[in-house]
Every structure is written in structure tokens, then in C-alpha cells.
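step=encode ok
step=design start
structure_in=
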């Protein structure tokens, strides 16, 4: 993703919305962003880093719909609840 693509994506969002960083597809959590830093990679190409806050605090689990949109997990349907039967004594109650 380029900075331009990121700006285009963000321009469609509510300007007052909190920003979180989605981290680790195998244990998806949300993290707070502390800053954006421009630099260069090993080949001298421009790169922008989005930094996590210093505390490294997790702000809860990533909402399942976000993990699905990121293709980090498959859509999951809540299993249907089966009606529970009544318990009966094995020996016929004697």
C-alpha cells in the first residue's frame, strides 16, 4: 500500500473515528497508533512507518468482521442451539 492509497482509504472514513492498528492474524488484536514516521528502506526507497504506542497496550480483540475483511479468518456462523432433552435415569428410575 502506498501513502496515496492509505490517504484515499482514510478519506472515506469518519474524521473523528479512533484509529487502531490490526496486529497478528493468528491472535488478532487492536493496538493504538502513536505516530507516523517517514524514512528510507535498505535500498533507499521512501517508506512510512506507522508506530504502535510506547505502552504496547492491546485495546481488545479485533472485531470478527474486521478479521474477515482482512481475510485473517473465514466468516463464521453462530452454531444453532439444539433443544436439550430431559435426563432420564438409566435403570428406569428404580
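sequence_out=
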Amino acid at each position: 500500500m502506498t501513502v496515496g492509497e492509505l490517504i484515499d482509504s482514510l478519506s472515506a472514513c469518519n474524521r473523528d473515528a479512533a484509529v487502531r492498528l490490526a496486529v497478528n492474524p493468528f491472535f488478532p488484536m487492536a493496538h493504538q497508533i502513536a505516530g507516523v514516521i517517514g524514512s528510507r528502506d535498505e535500498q533507499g526507497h521512501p517508506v512510512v512507518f506507522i508506530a504502535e504506542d510506547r505502552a504496547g497496550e492491546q485495546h481488545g480483540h479485533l472485531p470478527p468482521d474486521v478479521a474477515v475483511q482482512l481475510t485473517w479468518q473465514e466468516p463464521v456462523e453462530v452454531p444453532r442451539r439444539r433443544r436439550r432433552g430431559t435426563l432420564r435415569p438409566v435403570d428406569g428410575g428404580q
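step=design ok
step=annotate ok -> The mean pLDDT is 83.
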